[in-house]
Design a protein that fits this description.
Radius of gyration: 26 Å
Organism: Sagittula salina
Keywords: Cell inner membrane, Cell membrane, Electron transport, Heme, Iron, Membrane, Metal-binding, Oxidoreductase, Transmembrane, Transmembrane helix, Transport
Strand order of the largest sheet: 1-2
Number of domains: 4
GO cellular component, one term: plasma membrane
Shape: globular
Pfam families: Cyt_bd_oxida_I
Structural class: mainly alpha
Protein name: Cytochrome ubiquinol oxidase subunit I
Helix content: over 70%
Order of helices and strands: HHHHHEEHHHHEEHHHHHHEHHEEHHHE
């Protein structure tokens, strides 16, 4: 029953988190793109750029509102579904979440209001400052939530207090500048920029195919292709940094992503494709690329990346040390309960082995008291530290493959924009339209790899997921899961309806002023060739 409870809690949080992240990447990227467009407007004083800012800003606003609403629900779940987790790490996890709330609900939301209602009340430069503050607020809001998430991956700057039975912060500086958090932040933000760039590129391509809003679409493609190409390239570079960070802080996840069952001689090869078999601990029909994984994971040619089998054996030893820590912890608790002085020897033994206490908690799945665990149960708990390899293996490779298509697509449009007078073949425009949802798929797969790959831990190496959940009934979880699913489905329909409505409507503000400027601009360009935005094939 308890396993079902935990799995249902995980399913509910995964559903709400993945749904929330449908809005986050577009918010991150579109806020910056809108600020760039308004910057060009202030610099050139051309009405078309003001119209572009308002049009894409409207779509940003729709997305932003639903993103905030779904984010609130997700944060409430820490107290509802994961109460022991909230108690255990609240001293550490609460601080960045509080900062994220301040950024999202005070700084970001305030400046979003000024952005939409301040066009005729602020000066051009003043409104531009507001636009950039919206972008900065959006990105800083993501920073704090990713600092919190990064701490779950690499719990630095905190230690377990045996007297309070909680994690307590020892260094806020270490929490903020956590290596895993910083790598996750820059990679996530860059992915959001790619999402927004492909969205603007796809919608603008649809306008060109329909012969509507040509000037706006051309300029939007120019901005989106340049911004998207730079962002897509940075995602690859920053993804490499994330891989190196994982080799230091999440060795089991990295080995599982690679289906690296045994430790290979340095430098390790990258498995391009294959069929992982977790029962046999073998990857069938594997195709390897020499040296690549070694370079990504170690930045060298002479360091090994440990395989799954070696890591499981290491975890057996960590479970044994965790049992020693657990025994010392029970002695400390017993002394406190009886009002006795805590034995110095017990305190010393605990301090020497406390880093592995979480591994003893893995035994709670098989035995109430980890000190009574058998050798077989210890081995079973060590085997539990291996996540499901097959879904991780393919989710990662699909994500990477999509990432390279984003580079090709934005690179092609950037080339056509820069060297082919902003004329684009129909096949490229249709490709851009079809490819609109692909960045979201890649982003969701990225979060799947990050979170599913951390299992069986909520806080890596410290708190197993099975111990983190609230003591709710399965019926309560099924009821709330059904309610969330229904509610989010309604919100999704509303979101898509509003987005499609305003995309079909097109730019509707500052129409007369912009049309007059466009006519004058076309007259100046009338002698140039290739006026059509669609490049027809040569006969």
């Amino acid at each position: 029953m308890e396993i079902g409870l935990v799995e249902l809690s995980r399913l509910q949080f995964a559903m709400t988190a993945l749904y929330h992240f449908l809005f986050v990447p577009l918010t991150l990227g579109l806020s910056v793109l809108v600020a760039i467009m308004e910057t060009v407007y202030v610099m050139t004083n051309r009405p078309i750029w003001r119209q572009m800012t308002k049009f894409w800003g409207t779509l940003f606003g729709i997305n932003f509102v639903l993103g905030v609403a779904t984010g609130i629900t997700m944060e409430f779940q820490f107290g509802m579904n994961w109460s022991y987790y909230s108690h255990y790490v609240g001293d550490v996890f609460g601080a960045p979440l509080a900062m994220e709330g301040l950024m999202a609900f005070f700084m970001e939301a305030t400046f979003v209001g000024l952005f939409f209602f301040g066009w005729d009340k602020l000066s051009k430069v003043g409104h531009l400052v507001v636009a950039w503050l919206v972008a900065i607020g959006s990105n800083f809001s993501a920073l704090w939530i990713l600092i919190a998430n990064g701490w779950m991956v690499n719990p630095v700057g905190a230690e377990f207090n045996p007297e309070t039975m909680r994690m307590e912060m020892t260094s806020f500086f270490e929490v903020i500048f956590n290596e895993a958090a910083q790598a996750k932040f820059v990679h996530t933000v860059s992915a959001g920029y790619v999402t927004a760039a492909l969205f603007v590129l796809g919608v603008s391509s649809w306008y060109l195919l329909k012969g509507r809003h040509i000037d706006l679409a051309r300029r939007s493609i120019a901005v989106a292709s340049a911004f998207g190409l730079a962002s897509a390239l940075s995602v690859v570079v920053l993804g490499d940094e994330s891989g190196y960070s994982a080799s230091q802080t999440q060795k089991m996840k990295l080995a599982s992503i690679e289906a690296m069952w045994e430790t290979e001689p340095a430098p390790a090869a990258f498995t391009l494709i294959g069929i992982p078999d977790q029962e046999a601990r073998e990857t069938h029909y594997a195709i390897h690329i020499p040296y690549v994984m070694g370079l990504i994971g170690t930045r060298s040619l002479n360091e090994e990346i440990p395989g799954i089998a070696q890591l499981v054996e290491e975890n057996v030893d960590r479970i044994r040390r965790g049992i020693i820590a657990y025994d010392a912890l029970m002695q400390v608790r017993e002394a406190r309960t009886n009002g006795e002085e805590i034995p110095s020897e017990s305190r010393f033994v605990f301090q020497q082995n406390s880093v592995d206490l979480g591994y003893a908690f893995l035994l709670k799945r098989y035995v109430d008291d980890p000190r009574e665990a058998t050798e077989e149960q210890i081995q079973m708990a060590a085997d539990d530290t291996v996540p499901r390899v097959f879904p991780l293996f393919y989710a990662f490779r699909i994500m990477v493959a999509l990432g390279f298509t984003f580079i090709l697509l934005t690179g092609y449009f950037f080339w056509r924009t820069s060297f082919r007078h902003m004329s684009y073949p129909r096949w490229a425009l249709w490709t851009a339209v079809v490819w609109i949802p692909m960045p979201w798929i890649a982003a969701e797969l990225g979060w799947f790899v990050a979170e599913f790959g951390r299992q069986p831990w909520t806080v890596d190496g410290m708190l197993p997921t099975a111990l983190s959940a609230s003591h709710l009934s399965v019926s309560d979880l099924l009821l709330t899961l059904a309610g969330f699913t229904l509610f989010y489905t309604v919100l999704f329909v509303i979101e898509m309806s509003l987005m499609v409505k305003y995309i079909r409507k097109g730019p509707y503000q500052d129409v007369d002023e912009t049309d007059a400027w466009q006519q004058r601009h076309r007259a100046r360009l009338s002698t140039r060739r290739n006026q059509s935005p669609i490049a027809e094939p040569a006969e």
